[in-house]
Structures are given as C-alpha cells and as structure tokens.
Amino acid sequence: MIEINKIYNMNCLEGMKYIEDNSINLVVTDPPYRLVQGGCTNKAVTLKGATDLKSGRVFSNNFINFSDWIPEVYRVLKENTHCYIICNDRNLKELLIESENVGFKLLNILVWKKKKHSPNRYYLKNAEFIVFLRKGRATNINNMGTFQCLEIDNVKEKHHPSEKPVELMEIYINNSSKEGEIVFDPFMGSGTTAIACINTSRNYIGFEIDPDYYKIAEERIRKAKLDKLLEVKENA
C-alpha cells in the first residue's frame, strides 16, 4: 500500500500501480523530457548531473515518454480535479496530444517567467510552460486573481538541475486543492512539490527513481517538516 506524506525511491511506472483509482486530488509535476540546445555548445549549457545534451539527455533516467505515464496519472486522479505539468516549448505539442488522448481537457497554458535566461540563437529562453489540465467537470481555481504569467526568481542554490521554486509550486497547489487533500508528483526530483505541500498543509505522495536525488529530497523534506512544526508552535 502507498502511504501519504512519503516519497518512494522507485520508478513511478511501477509505483503508480499501487495507487487506487480516483484517489488523488491534484497532480503537480515537472517530468523528465528531451532538451534541445538551440545551436549552443554543451559548454554553454552545462548543468550539474548532465550527461549528453546533444541528444537531449540530461538525466540517466529521462528517456520516458509522456504516453508511458500520463494514462496512469489520469487514472489515479479524482473526477473534477486539476493537473499541472511543466514542459518546454519543444515537447509541448506531444504533451498536449497525449493528455487529450487519455481524456484530459486543456484549461490553460501557464507561464513561469524566469529572472535568468538560457542560451539559444532563436531568442534567449527565459520562460517555461505549465500545461493546466482538468479531469471531468471544469472547476474554478481558488484564487481567480492569479495571473497566467508568473514572474518568480530562479532557485539560487539548486539541489537538482531542473529544480523549480517552491513558491511556484505553492501557488498552483493553493489554487487547485484544499488543506488536507492529497497532491501527487510522480517525478519528485529533490522534493520541491512535497515541500510546497508541507508549507500549505497538504498531504503528498511522490516517486523519485534516482537514489541520490531521493536522499536529497528526504533531507529537504525532513527540514521542511521541522520548520513547519516550529512555526505552528510559535503561532500557538
């Protein structure tokens, strides 16, 4: 059985088999996908943990297709819920097609405007896209005053090459779930989604296949739980 408020060091394709149908309130995830340099050299875009950027390979486990895991995400989500999937421009079309194939409906394409940019000869890249989907009936977000494009600082001291700001995840989690509900991230990385859940009083479930990032996530989560406990005691 899969426990809440826990991440598992395993392949999500295996782990999701143990999650019941229609049991998850929200999915927020930053999945692995192929990267394209835009004509720049490897040296210009070298990241910690990178392996072969010319082939689009950044992590040892990033060759996974959207069609491999999106059907399972759809299965475990409850009816009338939301799903946020972070993606770059090159993989956007495939993600949209595969999402619609399993039954998701597109609500919006959101944008994270970054303070920093990455090299590219076809316009410098300073944005990432978040595909905002629904399963079942359309429901409003909790804060309907939230802008489609959010400008949030990049993570200054990264634990993971593609780490996203906790603040960004918190906004989506706050908008599409309630306190005490379950948020699922099949690609937990260094634990950012779990930390955002702790900060917003949500439960979480996640998988991370890489043992090194799993250990980093566990340590970050331990610290976030301690910080939350201290905050509660101070406000008591």
Q: How is the biggest beta sheet arranged?
A: 8 strands, mixed
Averaged pLDDT: 90
Number of strands: 8
> What is the ordering of alpha helices and beta strands?
EHEHEHEEEHEHEH
Distance between the termini: 34 Å
CATH class: Alpha Beta
Q: Helical proportion?
A: 25-40%
Task: Give the overall shape, derived from the CA principal axes.
Answer: globular
- Structure annotation, total helices: 6
Which value, in Å, is the CA radius of gyration? Answer: 17 Å
The CATH architecture assignment turns out to be 3-Layer(aba) Sandwich
Order of adjacent strands in the largest pleated sheet: 1-8-7-2-3-5-4-6
How many domains?
1
Which fold name corresponds to the CATH topology? Answer: Rossmann fold
Can you describe this structure?
The chain has 236 residues and is α/β, with parallel strands linked by helices. It has a single domain (6-235), classed as Vaccinia Virus protein VP39 (Rossmann fold, 3-Layer(aba) Sandwich). 30% of the residues lie in helices and 25% in strands. The chain has 6 helices and 8 strands. The chain has helices spanning 12-15, 66-76, 92-102, 166-176, 192-199, 211-235; strands spanning 6-8, 24-29, 77-87, 105-118, 125-135, 149-152, 182-185, 203-207. An 8-stranded mixed sheet has the order 1-8-7-2-3-5-4-6, with helices on both faces. α5 (192-199) links the parallel β7 (182-185) and β8. The longest helix is centred in the C-terminal third of the chain and has 25 residues, at 211-235. It is globular. Residues 37-57 have low confidence and may be disordered.
